[in-house]
Amino acid sequence: MIKVKINGQEQSWDGDPDLPLLWFLRDETGLTGTKYGCGQALCGACTVIVDKQAVRACITSVNDVAGREVTTIEGLHPNGDHPVQKAWRQVNVPQCGFCQTGQIMQAAALLMDNPKPSHDQIREAMSGNICRCGCYQRIENAVHLASTGV
Amino acid sequence: MNFIDNPRKIRGFEKHVRVEKVSRRSILKGLGITGGFVLAAPVMSRQALAYETGAGKMPHGVVVDPRVFVSVAPDGIVTIVGHRSEMGTGVRTSLPLIVAEEMEADWSRVKVQQAHGDEVKFGNQDTDGSRSTRHYLMPMRQIGASARTMLEQAAAKRWGVPATEVKTVNHEVVHSASGRKLGFGELAADAAKESVPSIEGLKLKDPKDFRYLGKGQVGIVDLHDITTGKARYGADVRLPGMKYAVIARPPVTGGKLVSFDPEAALKVPGVEKVMKVQGWPWPSKFQPLGGVAVIARNTGAAIKGRDALKLVWDDGPNGKYDSVAYRKELEEASRKPGLVLRKEGDADAALKGADKVIVGEYYIPHLAHVSMEPPVAVADVKGDKADIWAPVQSPGGTRDDVAKTLGIPEGNVTVNVTLLGGGFGRKSKCDFALEAALLSKELGAPVKVQWTREDDIRNGFLHTVSAERIEAGLDKSGKVIAWRHRSVAPSIASTFAAGTVHQAPFEIGMGLVDMPFEIANISCENPEAAAHTRIGWFRSVSNIPRAFAVQSMVSEIAQATGRDQKETLLALIGSPRIVKPEVKDLWNYGEPQDSYPIDTARLRKVVELVAEKGEWGRQVPKGHGLGIAVHRSFVSYIATIVEVAVDDKGKLTVPRVDTAIDCGTYVNPERIASQIEGAAIMGLSLAKYGEISFKDGKVQQKNFDDFQVVRMDDSPVVTNVYIVPPGPDTPPSGVGEPGVPPFAPALINAIFAATGKRIRSLPIGKQLEA
Ligand code: FES
Ligand code: FES
């Protein structure tokens, strides 16, 4: 039996310990805000935060996070008012929106680590997250806005 | 040649206009209001419109009935139905916003309800071809105005005053003479009893009184849900008892399963079952390819189970498809005469007599859509009833196809349309929903079929692959006197009909025969090409290769004559006029020529606007260059300037993009800008990296590592968008697709300006490193 804390709640799993965290979250726990885009750590759609670090849930097993604290988009802020989420809305970032929860989690992790990232630091830190709709200019502006106060 | 601008016309679904036959019960149920009576819904009529569109010719046409689209609750909340699919364009916000505008509803008291697939009730729902605003701006205004009129009539009756004395202001009907007011909620029940006014008599708002249209201050309705993870895409649908399925499909188009061994798959923890999926022989429109499904308690187990399957395939007739050899075939065909589609003057003779002939051979490979959400669908089939939840661009077509595939009446199929995590044309084909329906029927349980990214890249409906060859003949003064364009590419029609070797009218009308230049001798030709995989619509479709070839050639002519790119482009466009190519059944995106002619004044205007705002001719640092391109597509006009920087190692970056669009009357400039910004990224992705190639019949790419798209670190630093203000009665035109085609040629022309290297084959890949 694996125990893991997700958004502050204890969850347990007695199935395949190698099951990717992504599918544990989406299919077994019902937390569908974390998305599948590639399954190979290539797109960032599945980004969650594990102990303050942005992690790709598609290549992280449930076993890898045993006893650790996982934050998904659903747990980022109780009302969805994390500065990154607010900035995202102010800048009207999303098109289809599918990549955006992963982008937001990546941005939130970046700002924990580096509260005032430069233009180049934002572009580098966010380049593991693909947006096929092409919202990059607005994502960059929103991260900048979140870092300077929304 | 079949005329299939819309997939469903090929099966004879075309109905021009229809008289409403919605039952009274269903309408009242839809309104959530009891009482009242129901009139036949008015069908859009010519007199009522300032302009005519092709909307009435789409399958099931247009329904203009406030009772279908609008309901008002006693608490005043107005619910407006969004009947098109939301894949990122903002349509789920924009169309209801038009209704709210005309109704004088307060947007903060409006809820949007997504329509399920039902074209008898809602009219055409195919969200493709950049048609939504174009076809529905006026009908949505009429629906809003009808609803407003019914509320006003109800208020006037209650007060015993003539309806001409009341008016609606911000969610209230007011009688100024007496100072009385009634909120929408207070009038809802009475308004539902009013008859639907005739379209002809409707009073539409004066555009100068618009509060929302054309302003761009309203965020998309799903904004909060998207940023909190609550937005529900197809992938996010969960039903009690639902099983998770992943399917192994034939690796070669037209291949068949010979045998399979499920044993190892069944040992994977969480895997419950392995079963065959019915397939249809190629080509069969959107029917499933067939294969073997692994059913599990979660998607991860299903994927692991599929990896463990032992499968034997018969690759069938396309087992030798090889992109290197195929390219040679296409290029050879482009060097010989082909089916002549447009002939003006005598291009052969003029080319022979020309002082100089410039020949450009351009190539663009297959592309995959890779929408961020791969295809996915949930089905719950019980007996002769089917419920589907899917991110489909074609809710009505999906309903048709599910009913036919299961052999049940269409009325027994409910297609619930979720948000789409991107579409780009991939999700106008409902094969994934059909797979889910077949599996659910057999299992007797709800099933989600999840395509992996690998499935999406290997088993999709790809963008075609094209060889475009242009010969331009110049006289002594450098004026272009002859133009011959041969376009060779497998057609989308090949996905519907075996033996297709020519482009369909809707493909040749995308930048080949509608070429707008003022040249005396023109020949547009289409040599034969057979398909060896499934070809489908990809955002912007054939405009991508055509704009790339034509607009690259403009720059080659500028280079040969030592003139400026922009001046050369304007000289080729020539005088402001309406171009009427001599082409039988000229395709005009399904729109009448009267409302949507090929207008070179508008084409020139976007070139001039982007040149002015984008500071064409500005000094750029060493290693930088500017390129320009213009293209009319989806009856919009759009011009782009790209600035590139190429360093001494050949690394390409894009510091700045400027785009001007004339899309006629528009609804939401903020979403137009987001579409154009995104189009630049998609254009850069396909130009820099985009290539799907085949060897031994199989796609050689698999995921975002070998089918790359632009990421933030190589995206344009800034994209500026300028929208041409519409004339008073300019009809609305497309926005979702037109942004992509001019990007690649503007980029390539900029690279030439920066480096002197002319790239004629996409993707750029390592060509700049040499
Ligand atoms: S799904 Fe995990 S990085 Fe793409
Ligand atoms: S908003 Fe569609 S993929 Fe990013």
Low-confidence stretches of chain B: 1-48
- Tertiary shape of chain A: globular
> Greatest contact pair?
A-B, 59 and 68 residues
Largest sheet properties of chain B:
7 strands, mixed
Can you offer a commentary on this structure?
The complex is a heterodimer of chains A (150) and B (770). Chain A has 150 residues and is of the alpha+beta class. Helix content of chain A is 33%, strand content 14%. Chain A has a 5-stranded mixed beta sheet, with helices on one face. Chain A is globular and about 45 Å long. With 770 residues, chain B is an alpha+beta fold. Chain B is built from 20 helices and 28 strands. Chain B has a 7-stranded mixed beta sheet with strand order 9-10-7-17-14-15-16, sandwiched between helices. A 5-stranded mixed beta sheet of chain B has the order 12-20-19-18-13, sandwiched between helices. A 4-stranded mixed beta sheet of chain B has the order 23-24-25-28. In chain B, α5 crosses α6. Residues 1-48 of chain B have low confidence and may be disordered. The chains are: A alpha+beta (150), B alpha+beta (770). Chains A and B meet through α1, α2, α3, α4 and α5 of A and α7, α9 and α19 of B. The structure holds FE2/S2 (inorganic) cluster (2 copies). One FE2/S2 (inorganic) cluster binds at residues 36-39, 41-46, 56, 58 of chain A.
Brief overview, please?
With about 150 residues, chain A is α+β, with helices and mostly antiparallel strands. Chain A has helices spanning about 20-30, 85-90, 100-115, 120-125, 135-150; strands spanning about 1-5, 10-15, 45-50, 55, 70. Chain B is α+β, with helices and mostly antiparallel strands and about 775 residues long.
